[in-house]
Amino acid sequence: MPLVDLLDRVLATGVVITGDLVIAIAEVPLVRLSLHALLSSVNERVQAPWTDSGPL
């Protein structure tokens, strides 16, 4: 399967990417970074759920 077809399929359905990075010295955690990302396409034909200029 070509990469373009795979990317098209992923964006059509959406995908969630999560990960953690912990920096530790002598088994003592000092810094923890968490990543949560959602990749999805946007369809302009779907109406927004709000009636004014936006949710804010």
UniProtKB/TrEMBL annotation:
Its main location: other. GO terms for cellular component: gas vesicle; vesicle membrane. Transmembrane segments: none annotated. The keyword DNA-binding does not apply. InterPro entries: Gas-vesicle_GvpA-like (IPR000638), GvpA (IPR050530). It is found in: Gas vesicle. One of its GO terms (molecular function) is structural molecule activity. Belongs to the gas vesicle GvpA family. The keyword Membrane does not apply. It comes from the Bacteria. This is Gas vesicle protein. Keywords: Gas vesicle.
